[in-house]
Amino acid sequence: MRKLLLNITASFISLIIGVLLSELAMRLFYPQDDYLKFVRADPILRTSNCKNFNDHLRFGSVRTLVNVKTNSRGMRGGEIDLSDTSKVRVLLLGDSFTFGWAMPDSESFAFLLKKRLNSGDGSKVEILNGSVVGWGTLQQILYLKQNWATLRPDLVVVTFVPNDILDDHSFQSWQTGKGDGPTKFIGKDLIVKFHLFRFFNLKLKKIMVDRALSERLKTVMQSNPNVSPERFTWVDLFRDEDWRHLKETCEKLYSFCKEKNTPLLIQDVAYNSEPLDSFFRDFAKERSMAYFSSLSPIYEKYSKDQLFISGDGHWTVLGNKVVAEQLSETLLGDSLLKKRDRMDSMD
After folding, report:
1. H or E element, residue 40
2. What is the model's pLDDT at position 64?
3. Considering Cα of 17, then 23, then 24, then 26, what sign does the dihedral take?
4. Are the CB atoms for 128 and 92 separated by under 8 Å?
5. Any idea where the domains of the chain sit in the sequence?
6. How far is Cα 151 from Cα 88, in angstroms, rounded to an integer?
7. Integer angstrom CA distances of residue 74 from 129, 130, 164, 316
8. CATH number of 88-193+233-333
9. Are 262 and 153 in contact (CB under 8 A)?
């Protein structure tokens, strides 16, 4: 019995030493940053950006170390003087794409858009980046309503990503207390600091998502043989209720902006999705509003690998650049960059 206990103790100690050595090796050669530590819990929006955050981070599987900086309002980038009413204010709403996932400030979509719009004489356009990683459209609408009186934008640009539908469902579950909140257990705060845990947790999440997509692809292809695996996207997961939800949320966005006498532009970043492009074009045409399919026009010029980070799915440096270029041309060409008579209240 004593020998058995000694063997168990020795095995346990060896295991602990092995884990610690692996953790050390991971930190030295393949560090896993807490790349969402600039996001905090929010009682209304579920999450929001930390204010006055400034650190260098690696975003998951993207190994480049980039600087992430937010101002006193939690927006990515430098401080904004809201007392200066001489500039046209463009409020960007979105998730990780618009925030600038895995990109330094100087190569993010928002920064490049501001640079393009102010390339002429004088700085006439101010970009307000109200995006938060992981947000869906419902959270963006709440943020818009909460901050309207303070930000008073002349134009609202909302970037739609197909998984925003899933984010909205998750947010609604959280609002009703049925959400997928983080599991609490003793020692969790310590465990999540381990780089080994972060690494395997990230891999497990990717495996689960890939498996779900694979199973759904099989189901979709059985009912629709025309669906191509090479072009299969989140849009192919949409159910009838998802399309209804999308229309309802877009209507809420449009109605609020119309009430405030402010134009709304929606851009989508779905990969070559004709159904989504058709939906937004019809929605925009019926309401005489602006719509911009940010990537479809440039597929003939650039490959998917050039525009999206491999194994990650977010825009590359080139992707951020060409989207900023295309959108700036749309804004300038459609004369959307104008000072407006903005209402003073949220009523």
Report:
1. strand 39-42
2. 83
3. positive
4. yes
5. 1-30, 88-193+233-333
6. 11
7. 9, 8, 21, 24
8. 3.40.50.1110
9. yes
CA angle 252, 132, 282 (to 5 degrees): 35
What number of residues does the chain have? 347
Query: What residues form DSSP beta bridges with 40?
Result: 48
Contacts of 334-338 spanning 24+ positions with Cβ under 8 A? 334/290, 336/155, 336/263, 336/265, 336/290, 337/88, 337/90, 337/117, 337/124, 337/125, 337/154, 337/155, 338/88, 338/154
pTM recorded for the entire structure:
0.85
Position 62: which residue type?
V
Helix axes 137-151, 164-175, angle to 10 degrees: 80
* DSSP code for 162: T
Q: Which of 313, 310, 244, 305 is nearest to 96 (CA)?
A: 313
308: helix, coil or strand?
Answer: strand
**What are the angstrom distances between the C-alpha of 264 and each of 53, 137, 287, 331, 332?**
29, 14, 11, 11, 14
Supply the DSSP string of 59-73, one letter for each residue. Answer: -TT----EEEEB-TT
Mean pLDDT by groups of 10 residues along the chain of 347 residues? 82 89 84 84 96 91 88 94 92 96 93 90 84 96 96 96 91 82 57 81 78 73 67 73 95 96 91 84 94 76 88 90 91 79 47
Whether the CB-CB separation of 98 and 268 falls below 8 Å is answered with no
182 with 19: CB under 8 angstroms? no
Q: Tokens representing 12?
A: 């346990």
The full DSSP string for 282-304 is HHHHHHT-EEEESSGGGTTTS-H
- Residue 301 identity (one-letter amino acid): K
Which of left, alpha, beta for 313 (phi over 0: left; psi -120 to 50: alpha)? Answer: left
d(CA 178, CA 196): 30
Q: Which of 281, 286, 285, 284 is nearest to 297 (CA)?
A: 281
163-178 pLDDT, tens digit each: 899 899 999 999 988 6
